[in-house]
Amino acid sequence: MKTAKVLDAKGLACPMPLVKTKMSIAQLEAGQILEIHTTDKGAKNDLTAWALSGGHELLNYEEENGVLKFWIKKG
Q1: Catalytic, out of 14, 16, 28, 58
Q2: Is 46 considered catalytic here?
Q3: How far apart are CA 48 and CA 28, in angstroms?
């Protein structure tokens, strides 16, 4: 999966991973993919709901060594 941008939001508490995701995805063109890395456990629910409500597509989610990784395609 080719990502246009990687956002490192590790160590940030809610709501900052979501705020930074919104700012980062605004810089992308429709169809481009943003990869987000965070350690905030609440981000799974937050980013999933935000992507759906914003017309974006959550392509994948995985957890590796305490880091949550998301791939969101801009709608």
Answers
A1: 14
A2: no
A3: 18
Backbone angles phi, psi at 12, to 5 degrees: -90, 140
Encode pLDDT of 11-62 as tens digits. Answer: 999 999 999 999 999 999 999 999 999 999 999 999 999 999 999 999 999 9
Both tokens of residue 27? Answer: 């810089």
- The pLDDT-based confidence of 1 (bands split at 50, 70, 90) is confident
Q: Does 5-73 carry CATH code 1.20.1530.20?
A: no
User: What single-letter DSSP state applies at residue 16?
Assistant: H
Amino acid letter, residue 22: K
Domain boundaries, the chain: 5-73
Give the C-alpha separation, 43 to 23, whole Å: 15
Contact present, 15 and 46 (Cβ < 8 Å): yes
